[in-house]
Amino acid sequence: MGKVTVAIKLTNWDDVRRLADGTSKDPGRSHTAEALVDTGATGFYLKQSLIDQLGLAKVGEKRGLTMSNRWETRAFYSPVELEIQGRTALVQPVALPDGLPNIVGQVPLDLMDWVIDMQGRKLIGNPAHGGEQMWEEFGLLLGRACPRFLESGR
C-alpha cells in the first residue's frame, strides 16, 4: 500500500462570514497546501504555521490517543472551508507541530463523499453514489449506528 496525498485549499471561515454579513470587503485569507489522507485518523489536522497564516482563532483543546500510544493535548481552532478536488466541507482543524504533515482523516472524507482508490493512490468519488457527491443526512441514525433498524424493515 502506498500513501495518498492531496492538494487542499483552505479558507478562513470567519473571514467568509464577515464578507457575507457586510462587515468586511476582504475576500478572506486562503492558502493551498498538501495533505496526507489517513483513514485511521478521524479529524482534520493542520501544521501550526498554516493555522497562523490563516489567522485562525484557538477555541479549545482536545486530548487524544496518538498512533504511538501516547495521550496528547492538542489545540483546535475556528473553522476553515476545506476544499479537495472541487468539493468542500466546513471543518475545525486540530493543530500539529510543523514537523508533521497536514492530515485529512475519515470524517472530512465522509463529508465530501471521497473514498481512497489504493491501487491508483488517489481519492475518487464514492462508487456507492455513482462517484457523485451525496449527503447521507440520516445515514448515521438509520444505518451505521442502528443496523438493527434496517434489519427490522422499519
Describe the structure.
It contains 5 helices and 11 strands. The chain has helices at about 15-20, 50-55, 105-110, 140-145, 145-150; strands at about 5-10, 30-35, 45, 60-65, 70-75, 80-85, 85-90, 95, 105, 115, 120-125. The strands form 3 sheets. Strands 7-6-1-2-9-3-8 form a 7-stranded mixed beta sheet. Strands 4-5 form a two-stranded antiparallel ribbon. The N and C termini lie far apart (about 40 Å). The model is unreliable at about 140-154 (pLDDT under 50).
What is the gist of this entry?
The chain contains five helices and eleven strands. With 154 residues, it is α+β, with helices and mostly antiparallel strands.
Secondary-structure blueprint:
Blueprint (H helix, E strand, L loop, with lengths): L3 E9 H8 L9 E8 L6 E4 H7 L3 E8 L5 E7 L2 E5 L2 E5 L2 E3 L6 E2 L1 H7 L1 E4 L4 E4 L13 H6 L2 H6 L2
Parallel strand pairs: 2-9, 3-8
Antiparallel strand pairs: 1-2, 1-6, 3-9, 4-5, 6-7, 10-11
Query: How many beta-strand runs?
Result: 11
* Cα gyration radius (Å): 17 Å
Structural class: alpha+beta
Oligomer: single chain
Q: pLDDT below 50 for ≥5 consecutive residues: which ranges?
A: 141-154
Strand coverage percent: 35-45%
Task: Characterize the largest beta sheet: strand count, sense, and whether it forms a barrel.
Answer: 7 strands, mixed
- Assign a percent range to the helix content: 10-25%
SS element count, helices: 5
Strand order in the sheet with the most strands? 7-6-1-2-9-3-8
Q: What is the helix/strand order?
A: EHEEHEEEEEEHEEHH
Distance between the termini: 40 Å
General shape: globular
Q: Report mean pLDDT, rounded to a whole number.
A: 87
